[in-house]
Specification:
By secondary structure, this protein is an alpha/beta fold. It has ten helices and 16 strands. The structure holds nickel (II) ion.
């Protein structure tokens, strides 16, 4: 009955890889040592059909099945860490001050390597598997997923579907969760420069005070979600930055406001952009000022295609102890969404147990999840490409 026994023999070795990566975290696109570790491991499994250096440090490695013709499916892991000082207290904690694998990408990379090792020895499937290792998932635009997509690797390797997996604290180890449709939110950012007319703080009647205008704008933006967005749809508008004068006695010429927009509906991004500008400009002009407005579209909605989600659910049921096929969407963003924008596919969550949340200094990837993660990848290949 123990479905993961088949992958238990890989657990000790993959745990060693994972802890090595954890001790040596790298950031952004500069994951050279991590990428070198990945290519060396792949080569040691006899996988030589590799394209390194995509978007700098991204890697695609192909394993051809021996079961005849079939499609190429892409399995993706991310490799980068975060600029956080680790406080996990684990013996394998980061050796680099101010940097840690606080999102478990060390675990994702190690598990995909484990699956590559397993599948390189059992090639009874049709078609091919493309193992995708990407840098810079955590960075602001342009992130690693976007840069790799723009580089054209999906076309070059004829990849038909793409799958991703992210560990999830709060879901028990051995369990999986996902859903068809929107699983994670889009992320857009905005900047508003409120333009008034500066002056002496003791003579406000000679000025157009952008601080007061900014206060009205921030309050006005709160009604976008409550009064303008469909209550059955998800929209978050958060103002996160505010910068005015540096002096106690100076009314500034301008005030800078910035914030972020998250949504699960692509159409709401357009609506949010228009509404934020309209509300902010209208309020500013009513007070005799004006605004400059900049809206930057960043990560799209992580959208799971229906058939691919069903394939992922079948694989998760074969690999896991329990599967939730109606996982509540989360408002965080994930740059695997760029690959999902180009190809049908799905992202699944893998239980990390009762650990600290991702991006928390006390977080650590749970090595007990390793056999389940490898099991998911192998069973997905079986589901999509026949017997492995
Ligand atoms: Ni992550």
């Amino acid at each position: 009955m123990n479905r993961i026994r088949e992958f238990d023999h890989l657990k000790a070795e993959v745990t060693e890889w994972r802890r090595h990566l954890h001790q040596n975290p790298e950031l952004d696109f500069a994951v050279e040592e991590t990428a070198r570790f990945v290519t060396e491991k792949l080569a040691s499994f006899g996988i030589n059909n590799m394209e390194p250096g995509i978007a700098g440090t991204g890697i695609v490695a192909l394993v051809n099945g021996e079961g005849g013709d079939g499609p190429v499916i892409g399995l993706r892991a991310d490799m980068d860490a975060l600029p956080i000082q680790e406080a996990s207290g684990k013996p394998w904690a980061s050796r680099v001050p101010g940097r840690m694998h606080a999102c478990g990408h060390d675990g994702h990379t190690a598990m995909l390597l484990g699956a590559a090792k397993y599948l390189s020895g059992k090639r009874g499937f049709r078609g091919s598997v493309a193992f995708i290792f990407q840098p810079a998932e955590e960075v602001e635009l342009p992130s690693g997923g976007l840069k790799m997509v723009e580089d054209g690797f999906l076309d070059r390797h004829s990849i038909k579907r793409v799958y991703g997996m992210h560990n999830w604290p709060g879901i028990p180890v051995g369990e999986f969760g996902t859903r068809a449709g929107a699983l994670m939110a889009s992320q857009d950012d905005f900047d508003i420069v409120v333009k008034g007319r500066g002056g002496h703080a003791a003579a406000p009647h000679h000025a157009v005070d952008p601080v007061v205008i900014a206060a009205h704008i921030i309050t006005g933006l709160q009604s976008l979600v409550s009064r303008n967005a469909d209550p059955t749809e998800s929209l978050v508008v958060s103002v996160t930055k505010l910068k005015g004068s540096d002096a106690y006695n100076v009314i500034p010429d301008t005030v800078e406001i910035a914030g972020t927009v998250r949504t699960l509906e692509a159409s709401l991004r357009d609506a949010a952009e228009q509404l934020i500008e309209r509300v902010a400009r209208g309020i500013a002009q009513a007070h005799g000022g004006d605004i400059e407005f900049l809206y930057r579209r960043s990560v799209p909605v992580t959208f799971n295609e229906t058939e691919a989600t069903e394939a992922a659910l079948r694989a998760a049921r074969l690999a896991g102890t329990a599967v939730n096929d109606k996982t509540k969407p989360v408002m965080g963003a994930e740059d695997f969404a760029y690959m999902l924008q180009e190809r049908p596919g799905a992202l699944v969550f893998l239980g990390n147990g009762d650990t600290a949340a991702v991006h928390n200094p006390a977080y650590d990837f749970n090595d007990d999840a390793i056999p389940y993660g490898i099991g998911f990848w192998v069973n997905l290949v079986k589901t999509e490409l026949g017997k492995a």
